[in-house]
Amino acid sequence: MSHTFQVSDKAIKGDGNELGLVPTTKEGEVYDGSDTVARDAVFGEITEKGPNYRNLGTVALMMKTQIGLGVLSIPAVFDVLGLIPGVICLITIAVITTWSDYMVGIFKLRHREVYSIDDAGGLMFGQIGRIVFGTAFCLYWVFVAGSGMLGISIGLNAVSTHGACTAAFVAVAAIAGFLLASIQTLGRISWLAWVGLTCIITAIMTLTIAVGVQDRPSAAPQTGPWVSDYRLAKSPSFADASSALSSLVFAYAGTPAFFSIVSEMRDPRHYTRSLIICQSGVTATYIAIGCVVYYYCGSYVASPALGSAGAVMKKVCYGFAMPGLLVTTTLVIHLPSKYIFVRLLRGSKHLTQPTFLHWGIWFGCNFSIAAVAYIIASSIPVFGGLVSLIGALLGTLLSFQPMGCMWLYDNWRKGKAERTTKWRLMVWWSIFVVVSGSFLMIAGTYGSIVGIIDSYKASGGSAAFSCADNSNSVGHQ
Questions:
Q1: What percent of the chain has pLDDT over 70?
Q2: Domain co-membership, 69 together with 36
Q3: What PANTHER family does its record include (predicted)?
Q4: Number of other residues whose CB lies within 10 A of the CB of residue 89
C-alpha cells in the first residue's frame, strides 16, 4: 500500500509542519509509516526511484552561498572607502540583505508554489516580471560561476607558480564545476558545503594571521622602513565608491539562492533560525577579516586578498582555499541549472523520475551553464572588476528591489485599511529598499565598467583568453 505526502494547510498559519510532507492515506486505510511517495507544491510527486528534492539542512549551505568569492574582495573595498566608512557600509548592507533574506522565507511560506525569484516576479508583475527576474537570476549565477572559475584559475596559478596557461586553468575549473554541479539535489551537495566552508574560512584565517606577523605585504616595497598606509576614512571618486559598494552587495548577494534552499528544506520552520546564524557569522567574519587584512596591508592589499601575505603564504592560503572556491563554483552552476531544469520539466513525470529525458536535460543544463561561465571568466579576467560588476548589475536587482515589492504585495491592501504605525514604517522601509537598490544598481554598474576599462588600460590588466599569470593583482596603483 502506498501513501501520498501533501503540504499541510497549517503552513499559512505558522503551526504544524510548515511546507512539510504530511502523510495521508486513502479513505478507510490505516497509515503504517511505510510511505514511498511524497507530493510537493513545486516538485510534484517524489518517489524513492527518483531524487528526493526535500532533504536539505541549511546553515552550511547558506553560509557557503555567502562566504565565498565576496570575502576575498572586502579588504580592497576598505582600501577604497577607508576603514570606518567601509565597516559602516558593510553593516548597512548586511542589515538590508538580512531583511531581504527573511522576506524570502516568509514569501515562500505564504505562496507555496513559489520555487524561484521568477515565480515571485510572476505573482507581483505578471508574465513580464517572471521573464525579467528569471533572466536576471540565470545571468547572475552564470556570472558568479565565471568569477568562481576565475578565482580557481588564480589559485592554481598561485599554487603552481604559473605552471600552465591561465586559460587552461579556467577550463579545468569549468570541467570540475560541471561534474560536481551535476549532483542532482542540494541535500546531496550540502556535505560539500561543509567542506568548502571549512576550507575557505581556514584560508582567510591563515591569511589574517600571516599579515599580522609578517614584516610587510608582498606588494609593498621590500627595502627600507615600511608602515601600513591604511586610512580610517578616504575620499574616493564616485565611480570608485560605487564599485566598492557593489562589491559589498556581492558579498551578501546569496539572497536569490535562498528561494531554492527553502524549497528543498526538510523543515522550513528552521529557515529563520538558520538565516540568523548564517548572517551573524558571515558579518562577523567579513568585519574581522576586512579590518585586520586592510590594517596591516593598507593599499598594498591584493585582489583577491589571499595573495597579500607573500609568495609562500599565498601558496598556503590558496591551497586551503581551493576546495572552497571549487564548492562555490559547483553551487553557482547547480542553481541556474536546477532552475532551468525545473522550468522545463515542471508538471511532468520526468521531473522526479529517472527517465532518459530527465537525465539528458539535467546534464545539458549543467553543461550549458558551465560553458557560458567559462567564456565569461576568460573574457573578463579582472577579478575585482568582475565581482563589482556582478554585484551592481544583478546582485542588487535580485537582493533589494524584489523583496521590498514582496512585502508591499502581501501587506499593502491588508494594512491600508487600518494604517497602523508599524504598517506605515514597513511601507517606508520597503520603499527605501527598492529606491536604494535601484540607485546602487545604476551607480555601481557605471563604476564597475569604468574600473574594468581602467584595469585593461593599466599595466596589470590582462587580455581575454590570456595565458598570462593572473595571481599577482594588487589594489595599489
A1: 81
A2: no
A3: AMINO ACID TRANSPORTER, AMINO ACID TRANSPORTER (EUROFUNG)
A4: 19
End-to-end CA distance of the chain: give it in Å, rounded.
71
Backbone angles phi, psi at 23, to 5 degrees: -70, 135
**Beta bridge partner(s), residue 47:** 37
Is residue 465 classed as helix, strand or coil in its secondary structure?
coil
Question: How is residue 31 annotated by DSSP?
Answer: -
What size, in residues, is the chain?
A: 477
State pLDDT tens for residues 213-253. Answer: 877 777 777 777 878 888 999 999 888 898 888 889 888 88
Phi and psi, residue 6, nearest 5°:
-135, 155
Cell of 328: 562555490
How far is residue 476's CA from residue 299's CA, in Å, rounded to a whole number?
Answer: 5
> Domain containing 291: what range?
55-457
- Is the preceding peptide bond at 304 cis, omega within 30 degrees of 0? yes
Higher pLDDT, 376 or 3: 376
Taking CA atoms, 240 is separated from 150, 168, 235, 444, in Å, by: 22, 32, 10, 9
Q: Which helix (H) or strand (E) holds 175?
A: helix 166-181
Average pLDDT over residues 197-215: 85
Q: What is the DSSP letter of 265?
A: B
Residue 475 lies in a domain: no
CA distance 42 to 268: 14
**What average pLDDT does range 6-28 have in this prediction?**
39
Among 18-22, 79-83, 94-98, 245-249, the minimum mean pLDDT is found in: 18-22
The verdict on 14 and 148 lying in the same domain is: no
Per the structure, the count of domains in the chain is 2
> Are 362 and 228 contained in the same domain?
yes
Cell of 140: 547572475
Q: Is 14 exposed, middle or buried (0-12, 13-18, 19+ CB in 10 A)?
A: exposed
Dihedrals phi, psi of 224, to nearest 5 degrees? 80, 175
Q: What are the E-state strand segments in 147-301?
A: none
pLDDT value of position 465 = 66
- Per-residue pLDDT at 90 exceeds 90: yes
Cα separation, 382 vs 349, whole angstroms = 43
pLDDT in tens, 336-390: 998 999 888 887 777 777 788 989 999 999 999 999 999 888 876 666 666 667 8
Range 427-451 average pLDDT: 90
Q: Is residue 473 part of a domain?
A: no
Average pLDDT over residues 125-132: 92
Q: What is the pLDDT of residue 453?
A: 78
65 and 25 share one domain? no
DSSP assignment string, 341-378: HHHHHTTSGGGTS--HHHHHHHHHHHHHHHHHHHHHHH
Residues 335 and 416 in one domain: yes
Q: Which three cell numbers stand for residue 361?
A: 536535460
Cα 33 to the center of its chain, rounded Å:
38
Residue 467 forms part of a structural domain: no
**Which run of H or of E encompasses 244?**
helix 238-251
